[in-house]
Amino acid sequence: MQHILLIEDDPELAGYLTDFLRDEGYAVTHALGQTDGLKAFRAGQFDCLLLDLSLQDGNGFSICAAIRQESDIPVLFLTASADEACTVTGLELGADDYIGKPFRPRELIARMKNAMRKHSRKSSLLTLGSIRLDPERGTVSKDGAELILSALEYRLLLIFMTNKGQLLTRERLIDELWSASGEFVSDNTLTVYIKRLRERIEQDAQAPHLILTVRGMGYKAVDG
Fold first, then answer.
1. Which of 117, 123, 190 has its CA nearest to residue 160?
2. pTM greater than 0.85 (yes/no)
């Protein structure tokens, strides 16, 4: 069940939305303002945030900015303001959508689902420093520019990125590459391909910051 955090200081609207969303199969946590909202966000796991722009103890912009420092959760602003500047400010702070009051409940559900679908696709991306790998499309980019890797380079990078922060021994890397490719991978082959991969993804392959050598033990991928 998807869990929605609603931060809204109008008790009547909040009650209506809470009941409606629960009838639609969502779990809902309601907070009245900025302080309680941030506390609830940090204490729970949520799939989407519905955020009123005007709150008694702050504003939605401040909450959105604080949450964007910690999470990429979908954020939808609910507001009676039709001011274009407010809309632009919210979107620039990282909000996913802006819904004017009064709104149709079914439209809200549709926009929530759309934001959560986009988030789901985005969260499948793997990152390592400025490197982005999309397992669904089999693509890799560095600083926004696509990298063309050989099949073995791609598999090696995928292993590192799916095990980021973990020590990987040479034996494990060889086993995983061998099983993935169906071809024999020797110790020398691994050395060559780690060198090649560093040349492709590191700013300086001679002083790597993304794929580190742990002397006498193996390798570790870090964000640099």
1. 190
2. no
- Nearest 5 degrees, angle CA 211-CA 142-CA 76? 110
Task: State the amino acid at position 91 in one-letter form.
Answer: L
Angstrom distance (rounded) from CA 28 to CA 19: 9
H runs (alpha helix) in 6-104: 11-23, 34-43, 60-68, 84-92
Q: Which of 137, 112, 113, 115 is nearest to 126 (CA)?
A: 137
- 68-94 in b/e burial notation, b at 16+ Cβ within 10 A? eeeeebbbbbbbeeeeeebbebbeebe
Q: Closest Cα to residue 104, out of 78, 73, 75, 74?
A: 78
Angle at 116 between CA 79 and CA 9, to 5 degrees: 30
Residues, the chain: 224
102-109 mean pLDDT: 87
Q: Identify residue 53 by its one-letter amino acid code.
A: L
β-strand partners of 27: 3
Residue identified by tokens 């985005």 is: 122
Q: Give residues with Cβ within 8 angstroms of 162, minimum separation 6.
A: 126
pLDDT digits (tens, 9 = 90+) for 122-140: 657 788 999 999 887 789 9
Q: Hey, what domains does the chain have and what are their CATH numbers?
A: 3-123 (3.40.50.2300), 126-221 (1.10.10.10)
